[in-house]
Design goal:
Length: 222
């Protein structure tokens, strides 16, 4: 009974933490799509043997993407606190944490997009080039439609990764479910809150994966 009373008393905190997590992940995935999708396209089309081949750009962009991806998120989170302060005006809270989450998500999603394009039959791309289609037309009408299921799955994987990263943001007061787990579950040794936050995160990830799989099947016209 005491456990139930404890949970009920923390419902406002749980509700706030859940929507902070949704807020952080929402901003980050939006930025990842806006910046990461074009980056992934450019990483692919500038590769050797493709219609916008540019090895210098490919190598520089690839190095930057790999460099960001190689930094553990918790270190990236702390290293980008000055940038978060510059953009959000603060180093704590979900908005500030969204800066680091976005920076981590962009190269992650870009590589998934690039890989999705690599799964396209090269004959389809060669046929489009042979008809005299412009690079923009090839990207818009051939690459993206053909890779759509892979891109949707990539969005799903990125969102799930961001949910996990957002939990780590609690270490620097980023808010969200992770912050709640640390403040109430870890520092106060409250196993009930810790288990509850874990269950919330598991349910959220399952829901995201289920929705992503359904959408990927709908857009797959192959």
């Amino acid at each position: 009974m005491m456990l139930l009373d404890n949970l009920i008393s923390l419902l406002p905190e749980l509700n706030k933490a859940f929507f902070e997590t949704i807020y952080m992940v929402g901003i980050s995935i939006l930025v990842a799509i806006i910046v990461g999708l074009p980056t992934g396209v450019l990483l692919f089309v500038t590769d050797k043997g493709l219609f916008l081949e540019n090895q210098v750009f490919k190598n520089i962009a690839g190095f930057i993407v790999n460099m960001i991806r190689s930094v553990p998120f918790i270190i990236l989170l702390i290293a980008l606190l000055p940038l978060a302060n510059l953009i959000a005006g603060t180093t704590i809270g979900p908005t500030a944490a969204s800066v680091s989450l976005s920076v981590a998500a962009i190269p992650f999603f870009a590589r998934i997009v690039e890989q999705s394009f690599r799964e396209i039959d090269k004959g389809v791309i060669e046929a489009a080039v042979a008809t005299g289609a412009t690079p923009w037309i090839i990207i818009k009408d051939v690459l993206i439609p053909e890779a759509k299921p892979g891109i949707v799955q990539g969005v799903t994987i990125t969102i799930i990764s961001l949910v996990a990263y957002s939990a780590m943001a609690g270490i620097v007061g980023g808010g969200g479910v992770g912050d709640l787990a640390i403040r109430f579950g870890y520092y106060r040794y409250d196993n009930t809150i810790m288990i509850t936050t874990v269950i919330i995160l598991i349910c959220l990830v399952q829901f995201i994966q289920f929705g992503g799989d359904r959408i990927a099947r709908v857009v797959d016209k192959r």
